[in-house]
C-alpha cells in the first residue's frame, strides 16, 4: 500500500505515523503531506526520514489510501481531489461526518457499511468514538432508548497550542492562548463554538454522530462536553436507558467479551478507568458499572480512552486495515 498522511506534521498526523508503524500496516511507500510552510521538512517513519510534499505532488504519486488530519476546510477542498484520482480518503475532520453520501465509521460498530465505492470515509469525533464502542454491544442486547453523557476531555483534543497553554500556565509563563480562559486548575464547559440552541458543536456532534454510526435515529442522546486540564485521554460519564432490563453481571461479561473494550470495574479494590491508564493504548476502558436506582432499565457507566489514538489516529488506521482485509482499496486510477 502506498499511503499518504495529510497533515503529517500535526498532533494527530504524527500519531497516525506512529500507529501505522506500531500496527505494522503494509506501507510500501509513505507520502507525508502538509501545508506549504511545512513542505520540505522531514518526518521520520520506521527510522527513515521522509520529506513533506504538497497535495499536488502526493496525488501525482497515486497513493492507495490518504489519511487526512488537516482540518475541516482543508479536507473540504483537498479530499475530493484525492477521491477523483481514485484514492481512498479517511478523513479525521468534521467536514464529511454528517454528509448523507459519506460513511461515518467505527470499525467495531459499523465497518460492514463500507464498500469499494466509498472514496471519502469520515472518522468520527473522538468523544463519540469511545462512547459508541461501548454502546454497540449494549444496544444489540438490550436496545438503547436514551443516552445522557457528560464528558471530561483532555487538552490534547484541541492541539499543540492547548497543551502549550496548560504547561505555560503551570510554569507561570504568559504565552499564546488556545482557550478564552485559564485551563490549569480550571474546567471549561465549552468545547468548540456555541450553536443557536445553546449546545456547543462538540455536543451536537456527539448527538448526531451517535445516531448515524449506530444506524438508529430512535436513540435519544443529550450531551454536555467539558474541557479539563489532563493529557492522557477523554473520560465520559454515561447514563444509558434501555428498553429491556439487564443483569449487571451479564452486562459486565458482555462488555468484556466485546471487541476493543477493556472492563476495569472493581471498586472494592479501587479499580476504575482513568486517563493516565488509557494513555498510549488503543482500547476503550469501561468501569463504574452500576444501576441507576432512580429509573428502571438504566445503567451508569464511566468510559475512558486515549483521544489521539482510538479517538482519532487508531480509528482511522483501523478503517484502513478493514479496507485492506476486505480488498476494498487498490491502486488509484489515472486522474
Automatic annotation (TrEMBL):
Keywords: Amino-acid biosynthesis, Diaminopimelate biosynthesis, Lysine biosynthesis, Methionine biosynthesis, NADP, Oxidoreductase, Threonine biosynthesis. One of its GO terms (molecular function) is protein dimerization activity. It comes from the Bacteria. Phosphate binds at residue 97. The active site is at residues 126, 234. Belongs to the aspartate-semialdehyde dehydrogenase family. This is Aspartate-semialdehyde dehydrogenase. The lineage of its organism: Bacteria, Pseudomonadati, Bacteroidota, Sphingobacteriia, Sphingobacteriales. The gene is asd.
